[in-house]
Design goal:
It is built from 8 helices and 6 strands; from the N terminus they run βαβαααβαβααββα. By secondary structure, the chain is α/β, with parallel strands linked by helices. The protein has a single domain, classed as Flavodoxin domain (Rossmann fold, 3-Layer(aba) Sandwich). It holds the Pfam family Flavodoxin_2.
Length: 271
C-alpha cells in the first residue's frame, strides 16, 4: 500500500501520537510506503482565504468557483498542492484524531476545507455524460480510507444507546459526507475509548488492535454506503420509495447486502 497518514493531535507524546508511531512502524515493517501529514507539527493553516486561490481580495470571493479555477490553472497555494499531491500518490488514507466536542479538531476540518476543493475532490463531472461524480465516484475513487479516533468516553457510551451518541452517526459527516462523497471506499473506523485514562496494558491492547486493522486494511470490507448514481436515489437525490421503505435516519444510506435489508445496528465491528 501507499499510505497517507493524516494526524491531528497537538501533543506527539500523547496516546494518539504513540499509536500513530506504532501504526507507521507496522506499515513499514510490512513493506508499505507511508507519507505523513502531521498537521500541528506542520503548523497547518486551517483558514480558507483569497490567497489560497491567487484571488484579488478587492473582488468578491466565491470560494467554490475560485478554487476550481485555481486548481485548473495550477494556481492553488503551494501547501494545498502539496497535500493534494500526497492524496494522488496514496492508495490508502488513514485519518487519525481525538474526538473533540463530537467532531474532529478544527485544524483537521480546515485541512479538508482547503485541500478537498472544488475541481479536485468534488464538483467533478463525467465528460461523457455530464453526470456529477460523487458519493462513490469521483477523483479519489479507488482509494481506501480508515478513521482512527480516540475519545475520553467509554466505548459503551458511544454505542447505540449511549449518552454520547452512536459513533458511526457522529462520524457520518466525515465518512459519508467527505470521504465517500469524494469517491473513497471507507472501511469501519477504529475507536480508542477512554484514551485519557489509558495505562500501559490499555495502550498495548490498542496498539495490537491498530496493527491488526492495518494488516487487514487492503482486504477489509468497506462500509456499504449507497452510490448516488447506483439507482437507489431519484433525480432529487432522495431514496426511492421502495428502498428501505418505512425507515428513516442515517442508516437508510447503507445498502442491503445479498438482498437482505441493511440493519440500523452499529457497524464499527464489521471486519
Amino acid at each position: 500500500m501507499k499510505v497517507l497518514w493524516v494526524f491531528a493531535h497537538p501533543e506527539p507524546r500523547s496516546l494518539g501520537g504513540a499509536l500513530r508511531d506504532e501504526g507507521v512502524r507496522v506499515l513499514h515493517a510490512d513493506g508499505h510506503e507511508v507519507r505523513q501529514s502531521d498537521l500541528y507539527a506542520m503548523r497547518w493553516d486551517p483558514v480558507v482565504g483569497a490567497a489560497d486561490f491567487d484571488h484579488d481580495p478587492a473582488d468578491r470571493l466565491l470560494v467554490g468557483a475560485a478554487a476550481q479555477r485555481a486548481h485548473a490553472a495550477g494556481a492553488l497555494r503551494a501547501d494545498i498542492r502539496s497535500e493534494q499531491d500526497k492524496l494522488v500518490w496514496a492508495d490508502t488514507v488513514v485519518v487519525q484524531f481525538p474526538l473533540w466536542w463530537y467532531a474532529m479538531p478544527a485544524i483537521l476540518k480546515g485541512w479538508f476545507d482547503r485541500v478537498f476543493v472544488q475541481g479536485f475532490a468534488f464538483g467533478v463531472r463525467d465528460p461523457a455524460t455530464g453526470r456529477t461524480l460523487r458519493y462513490g465516484e469521483g477523483t479519489l475513487t479507488g482509494k481506501r480510507a480508515m478513521v482512527v479516533v480516540s475519545a475520553g468516553a467509554r466505548e459503551v457510551s458511544l454505542g447505540p444507546r449511549g449518552v454520547n451518541g452512536q459513533l458511526d452517526e457522529l462520524l457520518f459527516p466525515l465518512q459519508h459526507g467527505t470521504l465517500w462523497y469524494s469517491g473513497m471506499s471507507v472501511v469501519p473506523p477504529l475507536l480508542v475509548p477512554s484514551a485519557d485514562r489509558a495505562d500501559t496494558p490499555a495502550f498495548a491492547a490498542a496498539a495490537a488492535r491498530l496493527a491488526e486493522r492495518l494488516r487487514g486494511l487492503p482486504v477489509a470490507r468497506p462500509i456499504p454506503f449507497r452510490r448516488q448514481n447506483g439507482g437507489d436515489y431519484d433525480e432529487d437525490l432522495v431514496l426511492r420509495p421502495d428502498i428501505a421503505a418505512g425507515r428513516h435516519g442515517l442508516s437508510v444510506h447503507l445498502a442491503a447486502a445479498a438482498g437482505v435489508q441493511a440493519p440500523s445496528a452499529p457497524i464499527t465491528s464489521v471486519p
